[in-house]
Specification:
Blueprint (H helix, E strand, L loop, with lengths): L2 E4 L9 H13 L6 E5 L14 H15 L3 E5 L9 H7 L1 E4 L3 E5 L2 E6 L9 H10 L2 H8 L3 H20 L3 H4 L3 H10 L4 E4 L6 E7 L2 E7 L6 E7 L6 E6 L1
Helix pairs in contact: 2-3
Bound molecules: manganese (II) ion (MN).
């Protein structure tokens, strides 16, 4: 029995090496796993399920094959692919998850998040996030022609790169108080998230009890995946891309 967690692949046409690594991962590591959780920023950009690029179709087909072989696949939105919808999930044989989602990981209550909501020191980003996660805003965006949305995605990406360059490192990371608050609210001692591209296992205290925060890695230079099995501590794995 195995459950796998990945995030922040940032799949895009200009990085066929990452797509290749992911397809290889699905052939080598994923078969036989009970569950595969993809915790956001799976795609570098997503402007609606109607775009259906060759890359998106290839990835959906590969996921569907895994799902048909018996692995349950779960997808959570990231800050890049928050418009990913039910159409894509159906094609991929995947289930869309809320952020956060509480699961029972072989007896350990575990909170799953993308991680961007934990970066509360970045006030400007949290305002943007609240607006973009508003169903009304999303409806308005998705009603626009595909060409307009493609243009908008390019602009957002340039803006994000320009503003993030000027931000201090600690502002771009999670806020410890918010981590503790989220974990205490859901009464968990284990949290798994991505987003920050700072893969690590952190020990902390929540409500006076020892707790663990596991951060998944991004797939820019390495493949990162977390393996959980019954009776063992989850293990973060890494391989060259
Ligand atoms: Mn992210």
């Amino acid at each position: 029995m195995t459950t796998l967690f990945i995030s922040d692949l940032h799949l895009e046409e200009s990085r066929p090496d990452i797509t290749g690594a992911f397809l290889g991962f699905l052939k080598k590591e994923a078969p036989g796993a009970e569950q595969l959780y993809i915790l956001g920023d799976f795609f570098e950009a997503w402007i609606g399920d109607d775009e259906r690029t060759p890359l998106q179709e290839q990835v959906a087909t590969a996921l569907r094959e895994l799902s048909e072989s018996g692995t349950r696949i779960f997808l959570m939105h990231g800050n890049r692919d928050f418009l990913l919808g039910e159409d894509f999930c159906t094609r991929a044989g995947a289930t869309l998850l809320d952020d956060p989602t509480l699961i029972d990981l072989y007896g350990t209550p575990t909170l799953l998040m993308h991680g961007d909501s934990l970066c509360t020191a970045d006030v400007e980003y949290q305002k943007f996030r609240a607006n973009m996660r508003n169903p009304q805003t999303q409806k308005l965006i998705l009603a626009r022609p595909l060409k307009d949305r493609q243009q908008m995605a390019r602009q957002l990406r340039e803006m994000s790169m320009a503003t993030n360059q000027g931000k201090a490192e600690n502002i771009m990371d999670v806020t410890l108080e918010e981590v503790v608050r989220a974990m205490a609210t859901h009464n968990v001692q284990q949290l798994i998230h991505g987003h920050t591209h700072r893969p690590a296992e952190h020990s902390l205290e929540v409500d006076g009890k020892a707790a663990k925060r596991i951060v998944l890695g991004d797939w820019d230079k390495h493949l990162w995946w977390l393996i959980a099995k019954p009776g063992q501590a989850p293990k973060l794995n890494k391989a060259p891309l």
